[in-house]
C-alpha cells in the first residue's frame, strides 16, 4: 500500500464544504464553525483535506479531456453510437465547443468550487488554529492550492473573477487576465516563505516551496501569452530554485515508466506535486473524483492481457500526427503505447478474438456474414469515420474498436475492482522544469548554472533514450520533446498555444479560430452572476 496523504479520503468533511466562489445566490450554512469544528490537530487536517478532495474532483476527468482531446494528443470518436455523449468529445476535437458544452461547463464549475472550498477552509483555520509554524504552513499550502486553481481558470478561461473572501456573496465581474496573473504570482510569493522544503512521505500530495517555484516557472514561461510581456529570465530563476534545492532528480530510463504505475507515489524522484488517487477514496460531492485511464485506453480485447476485473471500453486513442514524434527506436517512452499486433505479456502468445465475419466488419456483404471468424488483434494507426462522419462514428465492429494507437502511460491497475485506479497523477515534474528552463533560454533568456538549452534537453534525453545525445536543439525540437515527455499529463494544450500550433489542422479538425484558445464562460455561470462578461467569440 502506498504511503500517501490521507486528506483525500475525508468525504464526510468534504460534504460540509460546499462553497462555490461565484455561486452568489446560494448562501452557505454548515456546522463547520470555529466553536463546533475543527478544534484539534486531526480536525484541522480534515478541514484542509476537503480542499485537496475538491481539487482532485475533476482533475483526471474534465480537466484531462479538455487538456488532451482539444489537441493532437488524443481523440475520442464514437463507435456505433457508444461514447457519442451529445457531441461532447466531437466538439473538443473539432474546436466547435460553445458556452453550453458539458466539459467546458464542468471544469469552470469544479474549479470555482475548489476555490470556494479553499476560501472557507482558509477562513476557518485562520481563526481557530493556534499561532505557530504549523498554522503558517497549513495556510501557505491552502494559498498555493488556491493559486493552482486560479492558474487553471486563467489558463482556460482568461479573464475570471477574483474572490478570496469567504462569506462575501457580492457578484464580481471578470478581472483582466494580466491582473489575475499578478494575483497568482503574488499569492505564490507570499506562500513560499512558509511552505515546507521537505519532499517525500512528509509532504506528498501537498504543495511545497518547490511546487510554488515550479508553478511560477510555468507562469513565466507563458507570461508573454498571458500578459503581453515576456519573462524568460524569471522563468529561469524559478526553475533554478527547484534545481538548486537538490530535492529532485530525473528518473533513469529503467524507472521512467514506473513513475506512472499504480504503485507510484512519494518515492518518485521527479514528482514535485502530484494528485493522489485511491479507489477507496470517496469523490468530493458533485464531482467524478476518479482516475480510470484503463477504462478509456485499453482495448476491450486486451482485458485478459492486463488481468483487469472489468471490461474496458477503450474509446480513446491518439492521432497518427502525434504518434509520429515517437520515432526514436531507443526511446523508453515508446513503450507506453499499444500499437500493431497484440500479444500476451510473454510477448509471444498472440491475442486472438473470435467473432463473426460481419462482427469483424459490419460492412461485410457476403452471405456467410454469420459464420465464425477468428483474428489476431491488431491496432491500426488511422481513425476512419466509416459509419457516420456527421456523428463522429467509426462503426460498431472489431475493425472500429481496434482503430487508433493507445497510450497506457498510467498503467492499468489490475487490483481495482471498480475501474478507479491507484495511479497518482503528477501535475508538476522535475523533467518539465528542466525543459521549461531550456525553452526559456532558447527564447532569449540568460543561461545560468553552466546550463545551455542543449545540455538541459540532453539531461532529460540521456535518461530516456539509448540513442546518441543531440548536437543541436531548436524550438521545434523542444516542442516535440515536450510532447514525448509529457504526453497525457495535461500540458499539450498549454504548449500548443504557446508555440502557436493550437490553430493547426490535425485529425478531422480544421478550425483555426484563435479565440478558441480561451473557453467560453458557461451559460449557468452567466445566469448566476450578471456582472460576468462573455469571452470574445462566444456571444
TrEMBL record:
PROSITE patterns assigned to the protein according to its UniProt record, in alphabetical order: PROKAR_LIPOPROTEIN (PS51257)
Lineage top rank: taxon: Bacteria
Primary location recorded for the protein, binned into one broad class: membrane
Alphabetical keyword list: Cell outer membrane, Membrane, Signal
InterPro entries, alphabetized: SusD-like_N (IPR033985), SusD_RagB_dom (IPR012944), TPR-like_helical_dom_sf (IPR011990)
Signal peptide: 1-19
Chain ranges of the SusD-like N-terminal domain: 77-221
Cellular component annotations (GO), alphabetically ordered: cell outer membrane
Subcellular location: Cell outer membrane
Family: Belongs to the SusD family.
Protein name: RagB/SusD family nutrient uptake outer membrane protein
Segments forming domain RagB/SusD: 397-538
Amino acid at each position: 500500500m502506498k504511503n500517501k496523504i490521507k486528506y483525500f479520503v475525508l468525504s464526510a468533511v468534504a460534504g460540509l464544504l460546499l462553497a462555490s466562489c461565484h455561486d452568489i445566490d446560494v448562501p452557505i450554512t454548515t456546522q463547520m464553525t470555529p466553536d463546533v469544528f475543527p478544534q484539534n490537530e486531526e480536525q484541522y487536517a480534515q478541514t484542509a483535506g476537503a480542499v485537496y478532495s475538491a481539487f482532485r474532483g475533476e482533475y483526471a476527468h474534465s480537466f484531462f479531456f479538455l487538456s488532451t482531446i482539444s489537441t493532437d494528443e488524443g481523440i475520442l470518436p464514437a463507435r456505433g453510437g457508444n461514447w457519442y455523449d451529445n457531441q461532447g468529445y466531437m466538439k473538443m476535437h473539432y474546436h466547435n465547443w460553445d458556452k453550453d458544452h458539458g466539459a467546458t461547463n464542468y471544469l469552470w464549475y469544479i474549479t470555482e468550487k475548489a476555490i470556494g472550498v479553499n476560501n472557507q477552509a482558509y477562513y476557518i483555520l485562520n481563526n481557530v488554529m493556534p499561532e505557530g509554524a504549523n498554522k503558517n504552513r497549513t495556510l501557505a499550502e491552502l494559498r498555493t492550492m488556491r493559486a493552482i486553481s486560479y492558474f487553471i481558470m486563467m489558463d482556460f478561461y482568461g479573464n475570471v473573477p477574483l474572490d478570496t473572501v469567504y462569506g462575501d456573496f457580492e457578484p464580481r465581474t471578470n478581472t483582466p487576465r494580466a491582473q489575475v496573473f499578478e494575483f497568482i504570482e503574488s499569492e505564490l510569493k507570499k506562500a513560499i516563505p512558509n511552505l515546507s522544503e521537505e519532499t517525500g512521505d512528509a509532504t506528498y500530495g501537498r504543495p511545497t516551496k518547490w511546487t510554488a517555484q515550479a508553478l511560477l516557472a510555468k507562469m513565466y514561461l507563458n507570461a508573454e501569452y498571458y500578459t503581453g510581456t515576456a519573462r524568460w529570465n524569471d522563468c529561469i530563476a524559478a526553475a533554478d530554485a527547484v534545481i538548486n534545492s537538490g530535492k529532485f532528480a530525473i528518473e533513469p530510463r529503467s524507472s521512467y515508466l514506473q513513475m506512472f504505475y499504480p504503485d507510484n507515489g512519494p518515492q518518485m524522484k521527479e514528482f514535485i506535486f502530484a494528485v493522489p488517487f485511491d479507489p477507496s477514496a470517496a469523490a468530493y460531492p458533485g464531482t467524478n473524483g476518479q482516475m480510470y485511464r484503463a477504462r478509456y485506453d485499453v482495448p476491450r480485447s486486451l482485458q485478459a492481457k492486463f488481468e483487469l476485473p472489468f471490461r474496458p471500453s477503450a474509446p480513446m486513442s491518439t492521432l497518427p500526427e502525434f504518434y509520429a514524434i515517437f520515432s526514436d527506436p531507443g526511446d523508453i517512452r515508446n513503450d507506453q503505447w499499444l500499437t500493431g499486433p497484440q500479444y500476451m505479456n510473454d510477448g509471444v502468445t498472440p491475442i486472438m478474438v473470435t467473432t463473426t465475419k460481419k462482427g469483424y466488419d459490419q460492412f461485410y456483404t457476403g452471405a456467410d456474414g454469420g459464420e465464425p471468424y477468428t483474428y489476431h488483434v491488431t491496432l491500426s494507426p488511422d481513425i476512419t469515420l466509416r459509419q457516420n462522419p456527421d456523428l463522429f462514428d467509426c462503426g460498431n465492429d472489431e475493425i472500429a474498436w481496434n482503430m487508433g494507437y493507445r497510450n497506457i502511460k498510467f498503467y492499468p491497475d489490475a487490483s481495482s475492482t471498480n475501474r478507479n485506479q491507484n495511479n497518482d497523477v503528477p501535475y508538476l515534474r522535475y523533467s518539465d522544469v528542466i525543459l521549461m528552463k531550456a525553452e526559456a533560454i532558447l527564447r532569449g533568456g540568460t543561461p545560468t548554472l553552466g546550463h545551455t538549452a542543449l545540455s538541459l534537453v540532453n539531461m532529460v534525453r540521456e535518461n530516456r533514450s539509448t540513442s546518441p545525445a543531440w548536437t543541436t536543439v531548436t524550438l521545434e525540437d523542444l516542442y516535440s520533446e515536450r510532447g514525448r515527455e509529457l504526453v497525457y499529463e495535461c500540458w499539450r494544450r498549454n504548449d500548443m498555444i504557446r508555440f502557436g500550433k493550437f490553430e493547426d489542422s490535425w485529425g478531422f479538425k480544421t478550425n483555426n479560430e484563435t479565440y478558441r484558445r480561451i473557453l467560453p464562460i458557461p451559460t449557468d455561470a452567466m445566469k448566476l452572476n450578471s456582472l460576468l462578461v462573455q469571452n470574445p467569440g462566444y456571444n
